[in-house]
Amino acid sequence: PGTFDARKVKQDFPILQQTIHGKPLTYLDSAASSQKPSVVIEALDAYYRASNANIHRGVYWLSERATALYDEAREKVARFINAPDARSCVFVRNATEALNLVAYSWGRANLGPGDTVVLTLLEHHSNIVPWQIITAERGATIRYVDIDDDGRLRLDQLDHYLRTERVKLVGVTHVANALGTINPVAEIAARAHAAGALVLVDGAQSVPHMPVDVQALDIDFLVFSGHKMLGPMGIGVLWGRREILEAMPPFLGGGDMIREVTTCGSTWADLPAKFEAGTPSVGDAVGLGAAIDYLTALGMDAVRAHEREIVAYALERLAQVPGITLYGPTGEDRAGVVSFTLDDIHPHDIASILDSEGVAIRAGHHCAQPLMDRLGVVATARASFYVYNSEEDVDRLADALQTVRRIFGPGA
Ligand code: PMP
């Protein structure tokens, strides 16, 4: 695949042009939230200046225009993940809401005593906590697939659970947000389906960074957030296999999701409206559509190729920092996330010194406390890369880590 010049891409992002504490900004926290190119900011601005109205209800021009833009954004989402049917793409607030939707709607209707939900130790809390709530309510059980010492999933454990328990659903993150492991989702789906289980994929860290095709992966649910893929905060997506979504009860009740309401009860609207109660975030959906256009123009193969290069460079460069421990696999199955610790300096101290150098990284448990327990750490520092990061950013990170060592290091 062709690639692109990340320094040129960076020019499309106004926020990245500023200095922080008198230093140029090196933004290395895109796994938490990405920055937005001008085209996305302008799409939001244009929507509110020219097209804003509530959708579906109005018969006037503005409402029809807002409705058309909302539908068009949904079509873009469907093409981006190769969904066979745009009506199976439900707009939600974020990946967390999509995961709760599946747990509360599908889980409440389909889980009971004796049933198992299989998750993994690489999951973000948002793909753990909703299942803890629902399995407790329904008397079902959760099992967690462990990792090996490189941070790869132990598929032998998945097979064991699939063979020995009544597994109804396997929930797995496509890319681990704390370690960067790219999980073999198609392989996991094949094994789960052979045992009669559904597969829910958390695409929060994969959909922004690599081509994701729900048909090729042969999965049942995919969730992701717009704000991690150059889009606005407040918009996310649940894709589900149509027949499964059609059989599921609503998650939230209210306006727009009904066919008919009487004092005795209600009937539900067709997809996707059944799962979109209340006034949706139309402008944010339009902004997400603009982000998808931008990513598509870069080319998702090129986005992935760029990340493969920059993470390889980062792993090589950071390995030279004395006292560093790097976590996660080093191979083709590694996305643009690098978690590390430095001597016994607390990750929060690392992050705040880096901040004074203009380098923004995340420090903490990354909403993956079961994984931190497994790794035997309370927290890590994490640098994550995206389309606007170049080798220069990696160099600035590595140099700033030398400053951290000078301040905190052995003998300091
Ligand atoms: N899953 C993964 C793998 C994530 O990295 C995140 C965000 N850190 C989420 C889910 C939750 O995303 P959001 O906060 O946008 O709902």
Please describe what this structure looks like.
With 412 residues, this protein is α/β, with parallel strands linked by helices. The chain is built from 14 helices and 17 strands. The protein has a 7-stranded mixed sheet with strand order 4-10-9-8-7-5-6, sandwiched between helices. The chain has a 4-stranded antiparallel sheet with strand order 13-14-17-16, with helices on one face. A two-stranded antiparallel sheet has the order 1-2. It is globular. The mean pLDDT is 96. 4'-deoxy-4'-aminopyridoxal-5'-phosphate binds next to helix 4. Catalyzes the removal of elemental sulfur and selenium atoms from L-cysteine, L-cystine, L-selenocysteine, and L-selenocystine to produce L-alanine.
Quick recap:
By secondary structure, the protein is of the alpha/beta class.
